[in-house]
Structures are given as C-alpha cells and as structure tokens.
Design brief:
This protein is mainly beta. It has one domain. The protein is built from one helix and eight strands. It has one helix at 95-98, and strands at residues 13-17, 20-25, 37-39, 47-53, 67-68, 74-80, 89-91, 101-106.
C-alpha cells in the first residue's frame, strides 16, 4: 500500500511530504534531446510521460515500465493504464531540473 492508501503504478516511487502524497518516476536515463519535455496533461486519462523530437535522439529506448509511442517526428515514453487517486494533479514542475515526474494529491489527515 502506498501513500494515503493508494498503490502507485509499477515504475513509480511513493512518497509523502509537505501535505502531499506522491507517485514519482525517478532516476530514468532520458534522451539527449534539447526538445525533451514532460507529457503530463493527460493524467486524468491515466497516462503521463515525456516527449522529444526523434531526430535529436532516435536511438533512445524507453524504460521497460513505459511504452514507446512514436508519432510522426515525436518520440513518447508513456506510463499508462492506471487510475490516479481522486484530486490527483500532475507533478512535473521539476522535470527540467531533475528529470523526475509523476502525480500528487493532498495527504489525508492522520
């Protein structure tokens, strides 16, 4: 059981702090691409990840917990098919600095 009674999806690390419970993907080797950015706007549909222009690093292989989903000139690595907890929101603000991304929700009072 993860934070707040929710079990994080495979490949996510559970944590709590500052009034939030989190499920975060950490320590992933990322593509060497200037266009690299988080892909977090579809959390409510049960997936998130990151994207980059394939021409910048076409040899990159997505982590085994994710699905490679190239589309046209864009590469995508997606963690998908999970149901986030109620009131969850993307937690991707530190992606540029750390490469970590995931989602968070308010911790229930103890």
């Amino acid at each position: 059981m993860g934070p707040g009674g929710y079990t994080c999806p495979e490949g996510f690390t559970p944590s709590t702090g500052d009034g939030w419970a989190r499920c975060t993907v950490e320590g992933v080797a990322l593509p060497a691409a200037p266009s690299l950015s988080p892909y977090c706007q579809y959390l409510d549909e049960g997936y998130l990840g990151f994207t980059w222009v394939l021409a910048e690093d076409g040899a990159y292989a997505c982590p085994p917990q994710s699905r490679s989903a190239p589309s046209g000139q864009q590469g995508y690595c997606l963690w998908e098919d999970f149901v986030p907890p109620a009131a969850a929101e993307p937690d991707c603000d530190d992606f540029d600095a750390t490469g970590d991304f995931g989602f968070r929700w308010p911790c229930p009072p103890t």
